[in-house]
Amino acid sequence: MMISKATNLLFAAAALTVAAALPARADQAPATTATQFLKLPGGQIAYDDTGGAGPIVICVPGLGDMRQQYRFLAPRLVAAGFRVVTMDLPGHGESSVDWRDYSAAIVGADIVAMIRHLGASKAFIIGNSMAGGSAVWAAAEIPDNVAGIVMIDPFTRVIPTSSALLAFLKVAMLRPWGPSFWSMHYGSLYKSAPPADLDSYRAALVANLKQPGRIEATKALIFASQAPCEARIPEVHAPVLVVMGTRDSDFDDPAKEADWVATHLHGKKLMVDGAGHYPHVEYPDIVAGAVVGFMKEAQNQDGEARRN
Fold first, then answer.
1. Separation of alpha carbons 248 and 153, rounded Å
2. What is the mean pLDDT of each run of 10 residues along the chain (308 residues)?
3. What is the pTM of this model?
4. Which of 26, 51, 76, 293 is 20 to 30 A removed from 17 (C-alpha atoms)?
């Protein structure tokens, strides 16, 4: 069943209504907390935890990025009453490097480990880009512990890539120019409303990628297959929200890809007009409104199911 344009417009209107109801000054970041580390057999994952008694939301960035990607969305979720945990990917940010394997499925296993580490009976997962597939993997692995997943401009299946592009990327991601190339590409993914701090954020990203092992981790994730995550799509039964920028240049047809993902996961879809690959950074109020509304609805449905 394809999701109609009218349905998408109604959902967008609802998202704006919820966004308007969010507390003022939600754009301010929560108080800085010390980086924590989840120790796993292959290394350690860096994360931040806002704390609190609210429902847990685990936010996972896409490859080549850091957990600070959620610097605008996280405080809005906290203001709405959620406990937000943002985690770095293996080899990224402050997580350790030299893992034996880098893939979306491995990141999915890291999400599962994080949920168990936090002792969460239920948790929401937000995954951007490649981590959208990771959210699928985690939701299939521990269905009883996943309250819902939000997939922001997600890669969830194998999409054919030309051999010429793959050959180019193998060279472009090499040292010493790899971090600078990635920064240039990263900046191009913001289409209409780049954040005011984009230049300084990209500078921090380059500095991070220049550290030993980090650009190599990004490159490994670029070439890792999404097939293990795609295979688990039929096993996902949690509520799903797909958020996609209408101008995301990572997809030939962003709306068509969002339709495919939402249809196969029986979820809802929100197209963010004018946004690129990071709509939650370009238009955090719109995305926050949609995410908060989706999560509260999922909680209500779960409560009704338990009562029945």
1. 8
2. 43 50 49 85 97 97 98 98 98 96 98 98 98 98 98 97 95 98 98 98 98 98 97 98 98 98 98 98 98 97 81
3. 0.91
4. 51
